[in-house]
Specification:
alpha/beta; 5 helices
Length: 186
């Protein structure tokens, strides 16, 4: 499934898809209410949400950093500051960027994925970084809104899932917003 999704995504017009998805975010009340947004730096032709950080500088933007023992943490992103290449060649904030300290219920985490289904489940690259991070949030009692982004071509009816998988509450594609058919992250 991963290889097929990568092949499909490589053929898609990601610049126009990304622009359309950014447009949907701009008009979405959940995004508008979020003070902090945790997202990702595009990798391997992923949807690029970085223009949102430029258009909404009053929000606090955070990117993931893979730390020791394959632990994912989020650090403040500023489009004007230099980045460094991290593990797997994914760009991340420099070490002097402030870390995320707390999350509020109206903050937003936007997870990347190769595929998403109608229940909000995602298929990533297989290392489980975002899944482990979501489990840590849940164990700490931290609540925030969860969204995934994917082109329509990579939305499917059903992905295999296990009881430990945490679905997204929403999925945004170039054609709009889909509320996952599951209860919100709690």
């Amino acid at each position: 499934m991963r290889q097929h999704a990568l092949q499909v995504r490589a053929q898609l017009p990601m610049e126009s898809i990304s622009a359309a998805i950014c447009g949907h975010f701009q008009n979405w009340s959940v995004f508008q209410a979020a003070r902090q947004v945790l997202f990702y730096h595009p990798f391997r032709n992923e949807v690029d949400l970085r223009p949102l950080a430029i258009d909404f500088p009053d929000k606090h933007w955070y990117l993931p950093v893979v730390e020791a023992a394959d632990h994912l943490a989020f650090y403040r992103y500023d489009p004007a500051h230099p980045m460094k290449s991290g593990k797997y060649g994914i760009w991340e904030p420099h070490g002097n960027a402030p870390p995320l300290e707390t999350l509020a219920s109206d903050d937003l985490l936007i997870a990347p994925g190769l595929l998403f289904d109608r229940l909000g489940y995602r298929l990533g690259y297989g290392k489980g970084y975002f899944d482990k991070y979501l489990h840590r949030l849940k164990a700490q009692g931290a609540l925030c809104r969860l969204a995934g982004v994917a082109p329509d071509a990579l939305l499917i009816d059903c992905l295999p899932s296990d009881e430990w998988d945490i679905p997204m509450e929403f999925v945004l594609s170039e054609t709009g917003l889909m509320r996952a058919q599951q209860k919100p992250f709690q």
